[in-house]
């Protein structure tokens, strides 16, 4: 029987039983730490051995608009340090800022070279006076020294490149099926649309229901335009139920039957 006022005997650790710190295998820990430090040292030495100065730039691609010296100068401008530590993303970003460069792939080539594969931009359309758009509707040159005159002319306010390019792409195939060739699209400051066909015929689509008016032009007016393309100056689709035609000769403006002969916006 244990008396209330008598303390219980606490079990004392047996001889040879150690605490948590004493039970650690310090020898094993020391070995592991030595291996880790050795690995870090080897990695550092390897990095130092491989981090040689960049002496060569290997260029891959078809160079028609971009000159190899431009690429090499851009690489030299950005490269700091050796091959192992050079920031390839910075090199790529700098190269892709060069006119006519669409994409660049930059890789290391041991022991002392950087490989650069270039894809050049392909101009799909002119933009305003001297800009060039690619097939994605992106303005990649604002002031080109040479603008191919055979490209379609797209015009619009700054920031409207993609919208104008999209209407061009949406219209081009439909007009070809109707025997017409699209040569230009224009969006003015008021938001009014016009498309231009071969021989300079202008189709006025206005600001409202542009897609519907384009479809109506193809269904109703395109047969007439295809037959008398050389005689027509413009076609105005800004009517509720019809369209009007402006002739190059001294002919009266012909208006298709409709209730309201006043064009909408």
Concise structural overview:
The protein has helices at 20-23, 26-50, 68-78, 88-95, 161-177, 210-227, and strands at residues 56-60, 101-109, 113-120, 125-127, 131-133, 139-141, 153-155, 182-187, 193-197, 202-206, 232-236, 244-247, 254-255. It is an alpha/beta fold and 265 residues long.
Summarize the structure in words.
- There is one protein chain.
- The chain has 265 residues and is an alpha/beta fold.
- It folds into 2 domains: 56-120, Roll (Ubiquitin-like (UB roll)), CATH 3.10.20; 125-255, Cell division protein FtsQ/DivIB (Rossmann fold, 3-Layer(aba) Sandwich), CATH 3.40.50.11690.
- The chain has helices at 20-23, 26-50, 68-78, 88-95, 161-177, 210-227; strands at residues 56-60, 101-109, 113-120, 125-127, 131-133, 139-141, 153-155, 182-187, 193-197, 202-206, 232-236, 244-247, 254-255.
- The strands form 2 sheets. A 10-stranded mixed beta sheet has the order 6-5-4-7-8-9-10-11-12-13, with helices on one face. Strands 1-3-2 form a 3-stranded mixed beta sheet.
- The longest helix is centred in the first third of the chain and has 25 residues, at 26-50.
- The chain is elongated and about 100 Å long.
- The protein starts with 19 loop residues before the first helix and ends in a 10-residue tail after the last strand.
